[in-house]
Write a structure and sequence with these properties.
Number of helices: 7
Distance between the termini: 41 Å
Structural class: mainly alpha
Number of strands: 0
Strand content: under 5%
Largest sheet: none
Number of domains: 1
């Protein structure tokens, strides 16, 4: 079986809501990104020089930003992991988009601090999460897809 066949959006027939076969790579990538986001946030909280450079003194505004970054990343990561474990696809889609935006915002803050290593990984994770959210939308049954997309429009 090829990778394309293992993640094909062919739905299974068990249960009241058909679940696609092989969507575990999407869940694994989402869980990995959530754990990585929380781990980096906690590492930055423990050693702020990782985020702002070792020679730069940290001013109170940066400390506040760092605290908000840690809280935001850890909260989104916990929510994402709960939804991954529960396999709640419709609820997971907007949370994946929020986590992707969070990752990309971290990448843009890396641009502001002129640290290339803190730009590339969050941007790649954000793009992959958006692709995964799009894949989950594509694998939903037509009524569920309309409900998921319609809830974002209102």
């Amino acid at each position: 079986m090829t990778l394309a066949e293992s993640i094909s959006p062919t739905p299974s027939t068990s249960g009241p809501i058909a679940r696609p076969r092989g969507w575990w790579p999407i869940l694994a990538l989402t869980a990995f990104t959530a754990v990585a986001s929380a781990a980096f946030a906690l590492a930055f909280a423990h050693n702020p020089s990782l985020a702002f450079g070792s020679s730069t003194p940290i001013d109170p505004g940066d400390q506040l930003y760092l605290k908000l970054f840690v809280v935001r990343s850890v909260a989104l990561s916990i929510l994402t992991l709960i939804l991954v474990v529960r396999r709640a696809r419709i609820a997971l889609i907007p949370v994946m988009v929020l986590l992707a935006v969070n990752q990309m915002a971290d990448g843009f803050s890396g641009i502001a601090t002129h640290r290339a290593e803190s730009v590339v990984a969050p941007m790649i994770q954000g793009v992959l999460l958006l692709a995964c959210a799009g894949h989950l939308i594509a694998t939903l049954d037509r009524p569920l897809r309309r409900a998921a997309i319609g809830s974002w429009r209102s």
